[in-house]
Amino acid sequence: MKKRLFPVAVAVLALGLTGCAGAGSQSGQSSEAAGVKVAASFYPMAYLAEEIGGDAVTVTDLTPPGGDAHELEISPKQVAELGNQDLVLYLGSGFQPAVEEAVAMQEVPTLDAMDAVKEDQLREGDAHIWLNPMIMAEIGDLTAERLSETDPNHAETFAHNAKEFRTKMEALDSKYREELAGCAGATLVTSHEAFGYLADAYSLEQIGITGINPEAEPSPKRLREVEKIAKEHDATTIFFESTAAQTTADRLAEAVGVKTAQLNPIEGTPEQDFVTVMETNLSALSGGLNCK
């Protein structure tokens, strides 16, 4: 059974990460018996750690269900307990500043998922790399290597799991390429610029209503700009993220005369697993984009 633990309440948080690991064991076994201890900064990293580590790891997701990954705060106790982890898997580039600051305070093995992104793939100010399946596959390979350094006895298992994970991501990538084959150059109008890496992978042009900050209310000038671009590119749908209010998307959709649809940026823990949510996003894209 894959083990993931969440700091879900103040009382639990006060115990620190080590306390969480002990609470998550079936019979109070020691942390050593629980396998390699991995702290993951938010859901996509936790999902990936579980896929690669399997039963050989215990994963602590630092962002609890329903929590805002962008706004995550880490207590001094948690910062100290990060030093007891065998690996911290996180996403740099300012996506979760509190995690980066905490990691810098501890001498603990780390993996910044941004290391998997090739220079020509990087997008300035955007860290949503997990929405590109092939980048996820690269992160999986790096995770297997780092786990193998920590636990050489399970190196073959980690390598095997990474290979299977890559196959899963390749299949997902193939689905996207097949269903979006006629959409190259189509305009993806979103309420939050979280889908740039996905758009780049499948030759789409992303236009964000608010920019990369989902909490920012777009100005009337910005709405007019996006309205003009959407009309010029014959956009048929305004996509809004499932975690954001639909009001802005509805306003623009009404102004342009198009429909709305949801895209999940998968920043928080979803009700379904990663691949299923990605497939749901694909259905929304293929049904909403202006494709040939």
Automatic annotation (TrEMBL):
PROSITE patterns: PROKAR_LIPOPROTEIN
Signal peptide feature range: 1-23
Keywords: Signal, Transport
GO terms, molecular function: metal ion binding
Example GO BP: cell adhesion
A Pfam family annotated for this UniProt entry: ZnuA
Top-level taxon of origin: Bacteria
PANTHER family: HIGH-AFFINITY ZINC UPTAKE SYSTEM PROTEIN ZNUA (PTHR42953:SF3), HIGH-AFFINITY ZINC UPTAKE SYSTEM PROTEIN ZNUA-RELATED (PTHR42953)
Assigned protein family: Belongs to the bacterial solute-binding protein 9 family.
Protein name as annotated: Zinc ABC transporter substrate-binding protein
